[in-house]
Description:
The structure is a single chain. By secondary structure, the protein is mainly α. The protein has 18 helices and seven strands. The strands form three sheets. A three-stranded antiparallel beta sheet has the order 2-1-3. A two-stranded parallel ribbon has the order 4-7. Strands 5-6 form a two-stranded antiparallel sheet. The chain is globular. The two termini are about 40 Å apart. It is found in: Membrane. InterPro entries: MFS_trans_sf (IPR036259), NRT1/PTR (IPR044739), POT_fam (IPR000109), PTR2_symporter_CS (IPR018456). One of its GO terms (molecular function) is dipeptide transmembrane transporter activity. This is Protein NRT1/ PTR FAMILY 5.10-like.
Amino acid sequence: MAIETPLLLDNPVEDSVDYKGRPVYRFNSGGWKSTLFIIVVEVAERSAYYGIAGNLITYLTGPLGQSTVTAAENMNVWSGTAWLLPLLGAFVADSFIGRYRTIVVSTLIYILGLGLLALSAVLPPLGSSGCQSSDSAGSCSPDPVLILFFFALYLVALGQGGFRPCVQAFGADQFDGQDPEERRAKSSFFNWWNFFLNVGLIVVLPALNYIQDNINWGLGFGIPCLILAGALAIFLLGTRTYRYSIRREEKHAFLRVGRVFVATFRNWRITTAVAFEEETHRAQPHQSSGQFKFLNKALLDPNDTKGDSKVCSLREVEEAKAVLRLVPIWTTCLIYATVFAQPATLFTRQAITMNRSVSADLEFPAASVQLFIPATVVVLVAIYDRAFVPVARALTGEPSGITMLQRIGTGVFLSFLAMVVAALVEMKRLKKAQQYGLVDTPGVTVPMSAWWLIPQNVLLGAADVFAMIGMQEFFYDQVPSELRSVGLALFLSVIGVGDFLSSFLISIIDKATGGDGHYSWFASNLNRAHLDYFYWLLAALTAVQFVAFLYFGNSYIYSR
């Protein structure tokens, strides 16, 4: 009997099984011990992604010879695609093969893309060298190596599309939300997940940026490939310890939610009886059931004259309402994501023009200025989780200190301050260029230290601690349990659409402000450009977004 005691005291974890489909228990599965295997592969993937993305604009404007506008547009389109593809990956994971298998398959695709990217960087160009700059570029045959480069780049985006929405959801699945202790651990999980992720970036990125700028781009692209391959092997070692979520419903959650919207559309002209509304409210007394009442039409069968038959269940309608409530919050976070796109593009371009000397013979890579974002996240996450949350919890009674939407709103406000600071710093840089007569000599370093870019990066790092982590927890927590990969994909799609918005704004403004002998805001000669105007525009848009977020956030009803 003594041997069986642990099993009697520890009930099986609901809706979870082990790798063989058997019931799992808290004492021998999941928790932090399983999450560590998952964190390793996540840190490796983020290091690989930012090892490419963080310095990509330097590669595009350097070895590939693209203009600032073209390089920024190409990078934003690729980045936007990479952040939107998780919607597809989440659909495949939640509807068909599960999160674990999706992580493994997408990581293999990711590794293949990184390998081909490294290969494209070491192969000599096979096309015409003057094709890219020629006015008749449209008649030139494309360089096969350039085609390989972009094919590999989008293969990396495809790999991320399956990996990103599943890995964090799979990590959070290792904690049982029904257990009080594990529920608190899950709330901290999102904080410490980002802590270790950013520690990895601080360790890996400086070395990768230095190798890419000073040694060899092929090696700089190849090292992330090896890191991710090793991390996948470690992830597979944890297979026996993981908890795997199971689906209780016969219908896929995607189909259930979609069926509600289809039924509502079909029944749009049907008027629901008062008695039926009262019955629905009694069956679903939660306050949220009073929102989006038009979806209650999905409960009616148009072919049933007595009104006794229902097309969709009350639970399915409530799931659809939960998804629909996310739309205003998702929309009012888009400008924040547009701001988030600037460090890897325009901030890096600014740093290239500034004094980056550490000593007489050594200067730090321009992309390394971005490291102050993860460095700030590492410091503030620890302070937030260990100091701020306990104090705020005592004052507010909220398990996480402040609500998820309060956390996101704080981050949005900090991103506004970051854009104001960025605009002021760029105004100072332009003034320095004028003072020293460097307006028409873009190849000469402006006598202004690149350390001036630190404050705006620190503010964006602080914004990440609040907004980014807040969005991760919010979109994971506020969707039906079977759609949590989709929830995190919705968070990632915010960043993707933000990248596309950034590319759209840059393209439109460049065409509107350039031409007729005028320099555009994004002229390749940054001393003639006006990035400060663009930053002021983003600050104004962020202020408008913040007001809209406060309005919708104040009326949001949480799904419990």
